[in-house]
């Protein structure tokens, strides 16, 4: 039985009843109390009344007072707390309210529902503490939408960059009598989808084939644009003149005029498939790697030419010879300048790996040809532990092998599917499929 002494004791603990009511009603947090199994509203402060836009709430069943909440599981959650005696909390709860004479609007809440109990321990009602987090939720949602739109714009821009990069590189490699050619290209930064490395394989009118790898300083779209200009110019000069020195002098002159082309490096090799004679020039690039059939690999002597746009533009050449089934590997320095590898050690490592791959002693692929294995497996095996930080180009891997007979046909194609699957499914360390710009074999 409740007595005046109980009221006095309570007042001494929590304060004067009138003051407590006033403080309760002025609280910014929404507080309400539900009584009885029919869930009648027994207490509601001004924050709650302001939210729902109604003043006459006391004594109404929750379901009747908020008919607009039907189907939103609000009443059902209160029923659950009353039936189970277990508290319930929700964060970021989305609901819709429709005040008297107003329009339906969306709200977000964090709330805690706690059962109240009588002296016998039975549930007598529910206390609800609700925080209106609509403003913050809308800001979060708007930020997510902005981020999604930005991501979409980035993806669209990246698609354009990817298309640009693919258009700037050869769409295929030539099929020629007595020679096989393969090529691969791996970008250091998959997010930019663009880089400054390039390769080319050029069928000359006299039957020789030109093999090219080059590297423009930097990464990204600007490097790709410069790379595209240099590649096209060198390709045209090789076809027109058939002479390495003349072609590189033209490229050297262009490098002094084209922004971003200064200090670009290039290695050019002209291979006669009939005689096996190869003439080459290393303009600031590491020398080609010769893989004799059945023997250890050896690097050809560098010619000593400087990078493009540097010095007087002297591009002397050297010569060597490939026997039948020998291979010549041109590469960019990304395959050497890998993390945790010094240049000398990486140079030896490349030669050893290429020798084993060519002899099919690495990852056995009985149905593949040596040039394809060297092109794909060298990327996988040499980067799987160290990773890579610079673009890598092989044939650009430019590998060539004498002794293979094909009809005099020039094929063009966009990333042959079979070859692309071989590399993309081979576990190249750190390489996403989008990073592999070219994998070709003819």
UniProtKB/TrEMBL annotation:
Membrane-spanning ranges: none
Single Gene Ontology MF annotation: phosphatase activity
Residues annotated as domain PAC: 91-145
SMART domains cross-referenced by the UniProt entry: PP2C_SIG (SM00331)
Coiled-coil regions, chain positions: 140-167
Protein keywords: Coiled coil, Hydrolase
Record keyword Zinc-finger present: no
Annotated region described as Disordered, given as residue ranges: 396-442
Record carries keyword DNA damage: no
InterPro entries for the chain: Bact_Sigma-Reg, PAS, PAS-assoc_C, PAS-like_dom_sf, PAS_4, PPM-type-like_dom_sf, PPM-type_phosphatase-like_dom
PANTHER family: STAGE II SPORULATION PROTEIN E, STAGE II SPORULATION PROTEIN E-RELATED
Protein name: PAS domain-containing protein
Organism: Actinokineospora auranticolor
């Amino acid at each position: 039985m409740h007595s005046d002494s109980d009221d006095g004791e309570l007042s001494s603990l929590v304060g004067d009843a009138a003051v407590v009511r006033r403080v309760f009603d002025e609280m910014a947090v929404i507080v309400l109390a539900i009584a009885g199994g029919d869930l009648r509203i027994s207490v509601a402060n001004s924050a709650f009344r302001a939210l729902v836009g109604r003043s006459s709430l006391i004594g109404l069943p929750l379901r009747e007072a908020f008919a607009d909440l039907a189907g939103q599981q609000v009443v059902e959650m209160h029923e659950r707390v009353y039936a189970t005696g277990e508290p319930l909390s929700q964060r970021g709860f989305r609901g819709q309210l429709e005040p008297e004479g107003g329009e339906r609007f969306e709200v977000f809440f964090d709330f805690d529902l706690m059962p109240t109990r009588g002296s016998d321990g039975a549930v007598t009602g529910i206390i609800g503490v609700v925080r209106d987090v609509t403003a913050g939720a809308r800001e979060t949602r708007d930020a997510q939408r902005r981020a999604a739109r930005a991501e979409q714009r980035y993806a669209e821009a990246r698609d354009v960059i990817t298309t640009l990069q693919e258009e700037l590189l050869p769409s295929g490699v030539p099929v020629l009598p007595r020679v096989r050619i393969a090529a691969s290209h791996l970008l250091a930064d998959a997010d930019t989808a663009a880089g400054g490395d390039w390769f080319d394989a050029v069928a000359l009118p006299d039957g020789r084939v030109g093999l090219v790898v080059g590297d423009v300083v930097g990464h990204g779209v600007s490097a790709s644009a410069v790379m595209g200009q240099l590649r096209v110019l060198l390709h045209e000069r090789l076809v027109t003149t058939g002479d390495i020195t003349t072609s590189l002098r033209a490229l050297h002159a262009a490098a002094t005029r084209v922004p971003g082309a200064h200090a670009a490096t290039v290695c050019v090799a002209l291979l006669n498939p009939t005689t096996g004679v190869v003439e080459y020039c290393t303009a600031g690039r590491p020398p080609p790697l010769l893989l004799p059939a059945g023997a250890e690999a050896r690097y050809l002597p560098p010619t000593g030419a400087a990078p493009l746009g540097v010095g007087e533009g002297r591009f002397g050449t050297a010569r060597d010879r490939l026997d039948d089934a020998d291979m010549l590997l041109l590469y960019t320095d990304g395959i050497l300048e890998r993390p945790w590898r010094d240049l000398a050690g990486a140079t030896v490592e490349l030669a050893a790996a290429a020798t084993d791959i060519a002899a099919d002693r690495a990852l056995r692929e009985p149905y593949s040809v040596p040039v394809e294995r060297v092109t794909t497996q060298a990327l996988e095996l040499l980067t799987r532990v160290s990773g890579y930080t610079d673009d890598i180009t092989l044939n650009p891997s430019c590998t060539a092998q004498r002794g293979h007979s094909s009809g005099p046909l020039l094929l063009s194609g966009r990333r042959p599917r079979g070859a692309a699957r071989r590399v993309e499914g081979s576990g190249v360390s750190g390489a996403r499929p989008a990073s592999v710009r070219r994998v070709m074999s003819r």
